[in-house]
Design goal:
single chain; alpha/beta; Aminopeptidase; six-stranded mixed sheet
C-alpha cells in the first residue's frame, strides 16, 4: 500500500515558471496534451534527499477539471507507478489537498492509504 499525506496548494493561478520548479529533480514528468494544449501532467520525484529514503518517492498528477473522469488520471498514475517500479521505489507518497475528495478517492482506489494530515497548513 502507498501513503497519502494531505495538504493544500496555491489558491491563485501560478505562473508558467512554477512548472520549472515542479520539474526540478523529477525522475519523470509526463505531460498530457490535447488540441487546446497541455491538459495534465504527472511528477515522480525522490521523497527526501537522504539515502535512507532511497526506496521512497513522491507522486502527484493534475488533470484539467473538464478532462477528469476520462481515464487520463489512471493513465498518468500508471505511468508514474511503472517509472517508480523501474527505479526500485517501494514506497510512494502523494500529497493531496483534504479539500479534494475526488482526488482522495482516486488515490485510495489505486491502493494508496491516508497516513497523515498537516493540520493548519496550506
Amino acid at each position: 500500500m502507498y501513503s497519502t499525506v494531505l495538504s493544500a496548494y496555491p489558491e491563485e493561478p501560478v505562473p508558467v515558471t512554477f512548472y520549472a520548479f515542479l520539474r526540478e529533480g523529477a525522475y519523470v514528468f509526463p505531460v498530457v496534451e490535447h488540441e487546446e494544449g497541455v491538459i495534465g501532467f504527472g511528477i515522480l520525484k525522490p521523497f527526501l534527499p537522504f539515502s535512507t529514503f532511497k526506496n521512497t518517492g513522491s507522486v502527484t498528477y493534475f488533470i484539467a477539471p473538464e478532462y477528469t473522469r476520462s481515464g487520463l488520471g489512471t493513465l498518468l498514475l500508471n505511468t508514474l507507478l511503472d517509472a517508480a517500479r523501474g527505479r526500485g521505489l517501494h514506497i510512494l507518497v502523494a500529497s493531496i489537498s483534504s479539500r479534494n475528495p475526488h482526488s482522495l478517492n482516486f488515490y485510495k482506489k489505486h491502493g494508496f492509504g491516508e497516513c497523515g494530515r498537516l493540520k493548519g497548513s496550506g
